[in-house]
Design a protein that fits this description.
Number of strands: 15
Distance between the termini: 24 Å
Shape: globular
Radius of gyration: 17 Å
Bound molecules: thymidine-5'-phosphate, aspartic acid
Strand content: 25-35%
Helix content: 25-40%
Order of helices and strands: EEEEEHEEEEHEEHHEEEEHH
């Protein structure tokens, strides 16, 4: 599929038009940002690693019946995806308390909650993706209660599948963020990357962090951790 004009240049990905108006190319960059562009760096080969990781995971989810925007990986850095109307809500699923939830509520990172936690955030860099709830989302016209119900059900299924996949790779899925969109035919699909940039994953044996917290918290060996995730997922999926 031929890559045409650049439609959007984001902090870690670019979107390109294709000859098919219903498909776009998403190109993963080596650029990494945290804390809303306060911290920026290039991590060598991150684009390729994230493209490979996300493609493997989206393929795996699709094979289990999850509807996604992903069509195929087209080169080392790029994916062909369906065009969707993006719902500007981030769904965060938490199996273990960490990050902003631990900080906001004064809880030690690593505590396992009594239930699975689903947070909603409004997608807005200017406002630093503020936490919202279902009623806010409906009040702002971002989604209907019915759509939110569909998003929660899909998130629960994705969490079960991802937790299982990562466990096969000896990795504990702590939390992750996903976004959804609607296709031209009105189908709700997962429309996001699934990479160590957008989740927390800890080595089951050592507890070591294998995700973007290594960059956020200056823990070092960011590239090596992402490489290890890609290699372990490949083995877990027999690729
Ligand atoms: P948090 O602890 O900052 O709320 O983040 C929870 C998880 O969601 C963590 O794995 C990082 C991910 N996340 C993103 O990928 N993008 C975002 O904009 C936010 C707020 C969280
Ligand atoms: N949206 C946040 C940021 O870009 C999430 C993160 O820290 O990864 O800073």
């Amino acid at each position: 599929m031929k890559q045409l004009e650049l439609l959007y240049d984001g902090s870690s990905k670019q979107l390109y038009a294709t000859e098919n108006p219903e498909q776009i190319i998403i190109r993963f960059k080596d650029d990494t940002t945290a804390f809303y562009n306060i911290k920026c760096a290039k991590i060598e080969n991150k684009g390729k690693m994230n493209c490979a990781i996300s493609s493997m995971i989206l393929d795996y989810l699709a094979s289990k019946g999850v509807k996604t925007h992903f069509v195929e990986q087209v080169d080392e850095n790029s994916q062909l995806c369906r065009v969707v109307r993006h719902i500007p809500i981030e769904v965060i699923v938490r199996n273990v308390i960490a990050g902003s939830m631990a900080k906001r509520l004064g809880i030690e990172e690593g505590r396992v909650p009594n239930n699975k936690i689903y947070d909603l955030c409004l997608r807005s860099d200017e406002l630093s993706d503020p936490l919202i709830n279902d009623h806010h989302a409906v009040a702002l016209g971002l989604a209907t209660y019915e759509e939110l119900g569909e998003m929660y059900a899909a998130s629960e299924r994705i969490n079960t599948l991802l937790t299982d996949l990562y466990a096969k790779a000896g990795i504990r899925l702590v939390d992750f963020k996903i976004e959804f969109g609607r296709t031209a035919s009105g189908e709700l699909v997962l429309a996001d990357e699934l990479t160590p940039d957008t989740c927390r994953i800890w080595d089951m044996a050592t507890g070591e962090r294998m995700d973007k917290d290594r960059f956020r918290r200056d823990l070092g060996r960011v590239r090596e951790a992402y490489e290890e995730v890609a290699n372990r997922l490949k083995s877990a999926l027999n690729k």
